[in-house]
Automatic annotation (TrEMBL):
InterPro entries: Erg6_SMT_methyltransf, Methyltransf_25, MeTrfase_SMT, SAM-dependent_MTases_sf, Sterol_MeTrfase_C. Keywords: Lipid biosynthesis, Lipid metabolism, Methyltransferase, S-adenosyl-L-methionine, Steroid biosynthesis, Steroid metabolism, Sterol biosynthesis, Sterol metabolism, Transferase. The keyword Lipid biosynthesis applies. One of its GO terms (molecular function) is sterol 24-C-methyltransferase activity. Belongs to the class I-like SAM-binding methyltransferase superfamily. Erg6/SMT family. It comes from Aegilops tauschii subsp. strangulata (Goatgrass). This is SAM-dependent methyltransferase Erg6/SMT-type domain-containing protein.
Amino acid sequence: MSRTGALHLASGLGGLIGKEQVKSSVEQYEKYHDLHGGEAKSRASNYADVANKYYDLVTSFYEYGWGESFHFANRWEGETLRESIKRYEHFIALQLGLTDGMKVLDVGCGIGGPLREIARFSSASVTGLNNNEYQITRGQELIDLAGLSKRCNFVKGDFMHMPFPDDTFDAAYAIEATCHAPDAVQYFHVQDCQSQLYFISLTVCTSPWQVGCYMEIHRVLRPGQPMAFYEWCMTERFDPGNPRHVAAKAEIELGNGLVDIRTTAQCLQAVKDAGFEVISAKDVAEDSAVPWYQPLDPDAGASWTSANGFRLSRVGRLVTHAMVKAMERLGVAPEGSVRVSGLMETAGEGLVKGGREGIFTPMFFVLARKKPNLLTGTE
């Protein structure tokens, strides 16, 4: 059961960061980003710290606003936000052909909302990989409450250095997660005659693509098996010479713990460079009857038909900000909580700007597969 009360929001704020360190952690996090004098190069070399600080600080806000699944979804007219999120998760399970007995990897699983839904829907066994201890602890609580401990589990680890042997999983997916991968790290692999994989170097390169993360997914998948993901990307409409576009991109990165948002073309090329065969690729936002950013946009008919719908709206975010401010003054929430709430507002504003102008999508969908091993006939 997700935590949606104000006291849960206050008590969870900061995650495993000491309450007396929340303010300094927010300040350290902000300094990584362009809007506070930071640079993408610094974020890339410290990507794990960027993501961990971000999710320690904001996870209680996400759960308060979104529930257990921290992602967007394309929506049909008359469909609630929650219904669209479940359908979105079911879609990826169907595209992967998940069934009972399959071992599946959720890359960057958050607190496991999609993981649990997909396990229930498909009867597959799902392992969630996450590098944030607070989210894993919270996710395990929710797995136990859902009675899914025999079908779902979490593993702490970095998706650039996955703690799994080669050829472990029957399928893998990521929902708005691999966008946290650094933009300057790439693995180079070599195979010997026994088809054993060795890491021979970790090299900084000029590629702005998250090849390293995709290569790790490729490594842990069995030959012939599929990967699917929804990725946060800048679209072909993004103009790096347009100050308004650049500012919106910087707001999205600051408000969402990102290193450097890649374009759809760069993302697709990275999948191919990692060794995958691309089956299909599409910006799902293009077919959404309701704008994907509608829950955040006061001018797009944001729905207040549920508590989550209200909390995500601009008015709801302002109410939450005022509530957090009061709780911080009273000592219920730690010092620095208002700064964290401000990050959430920056995220919302940047996402709406990116969505309105069509320069950003949180749902570039790619379905690919690891090529079969022709030497062994493994499919």
